[in-house]
């Protein structure tokens, strides 16, 4: 529940920042990138770059999260297997 509330607060904060940046920056600037050049409003450029950074951050975080989850699953399997081997070795066999 706390995660959802925190997520909603973060989304609201991002929207407020985007509105504030967009409302105060109407200058036209020339943006040079590797292959071409274009004229954009500063607010649009900031919004696009902010969005790209946000998406890139989520991707990197997601990759690390998935890596940890896979490692956790394999370690849990290993622990179960070892626990089973220990019980097999410690239980007396009926002969």
From TrEMBL:
<feature type="transmembrane region" description="Helical">
    <location>
        <begin position="44"/>
        <end position="68"/>
    </location>
</feature>
<keyword id="KW-1133">Transmembrane helix</keyword>
<dbReference type="InterPro" id="IPR032906">
    <property type="entry name" value="LapA"/>
</dbReference>
<feature type="transmembrane region" description="Helical">
    <location>
        <begin position="5"/>
        <end position="24"/>
    </location>
</feature>
<keyword id="KW-0997">Cell inner membrane</keyword>
<comment type="function">
    <text>Involved in the assembly of lipopolysaccharide (LPS).</text>
</comment>
<comment type="similarity">
    <text>Belongs to the LapA family.</text>
</comment>
<keyword id="KW-0472">Membrane</keyword>
<keyword id="KW-0812">Transmembrane</keyword>
<dbReference type="Pfam" id="PF06305">
    <property type="entry name" value="LapA_dom"/>
</dbReference>
<protein>
    <recommendedName>
        <fullName>Probable lipopolysaccharide assembly protein A</fullName>
    </recommendedName>
</protein>
<dbReference type="InterPro" id="IPR010445">
    <property type="entry name" value="LapA_dom"/>
</dbReference>
<feature type="domain" description="Lipopolysaccharide assembly protein A">
    <location>
        <begin position="24"/>
        <end position="86"/>
    </location>
</feature>
<keyword id="KW-1003">Cell membrane</keyword>
